[in-house]
Amino acid sequence: MKELDNDFFIEFFKLTLIQNNKCISEFYEFVNFIFKKELEVLEKNKDNSSRFRHHKYNIEHVFPFKLSESTFLMLFGYLEEMIILFWQKINPQKIERTRENGIGQYKNYLKFILGNKFNNSDYQHIIEASKIRNSLLHCGGRVDLMKNPVTLIQIVNKSDNYFIDQSRIFINLKGLQNLQKANENFFKLLFKCCKSQGFIR
């Protein structure tokens, strides 16, 4: 692991990784702010045309949920990207991926790196988020079209991160915040465990 021996590089990579994760949330806040400003303009310039009403409805009801969904998928995609990079660059035993899908492919690798810290609350949150992510990607969040709808319903019902409306899963702001935090905690734990085991210096 010569390319990862430099302490400065490791710290820089760690800070960059965490900052990029936060940047996705900042993107959400910025676009949401634009929506709010657009609504203020619309309220001042009321119009009875169908085009105006349609646009206002989208800004109020459709676009915010699409933004939440997109941000959720970006957060999860970034998490997957970083796990793959860890697996490629910090894998002294050359642990192979499993035949599972998504981040489940890296379960054996993560168990090796994290040891008894593997099955922590952040990882469990991420696993549940992966099931929500799959439903969004493969069938637009439609619970009734997934192979295991009961599992999804249980995940949604036990927290206020998500909700179901007309058989479709939606992401709350808290769901975005909690995934962003789970990502950050998981990244920090990966670095800590890699360093404590001497995989990086």
Please provide a written account of the structure:
The protein has 201 residues and is mainly α. It has one domain. It has 6 helices and 2 strands; from the N terminus they run αααααββα. The chain has a two-stranded antiparallel sheet with strand order 1-2. The mean pLDDT is 91.
Keywords summarizing the entry:
201 residues; mainly alpha; 2 strands; 69% helix
Strand content: under 5%
Give the overall shape.
Answer: globular
Task: Provide the succession of SSEs.
Answer: HHHHHEEH
Radius of gyration: 20 Å
Query: What spatial order of strands do you see in the largest sheet?
Result: 1-2
Treating each run of at least 4 consecutive H or I residues as one helix, how many helices?
6
What helical percentage do the residues reach? 55-70%
Q: How many domains comprise the coordinates?
A: 1
- Taking the alpha carbons of the first and last residues, their distance comes to 9 Å
> How many β-strands, per DSSP?
2
Structural class: mainly alpha
Multimeric state of these chains?
Answer: single chain
Average per-residue pLDDT, rounded, comes to 91
Low-confidence stretches: none
The main pleated sheet reads as:
2 strands, antiparallel
List the helices and strands and how they pair.
Layout: H1 7-44, H2 50-89, H3 107-114, H4 121-139, H5 149-157, E1 162-165, E2 168-171, H6 173-196
Antiparallel strand pairs: 1-2
Helix pairs in contact: 1-2, 1-6, 2-4, 2-6, 4-6
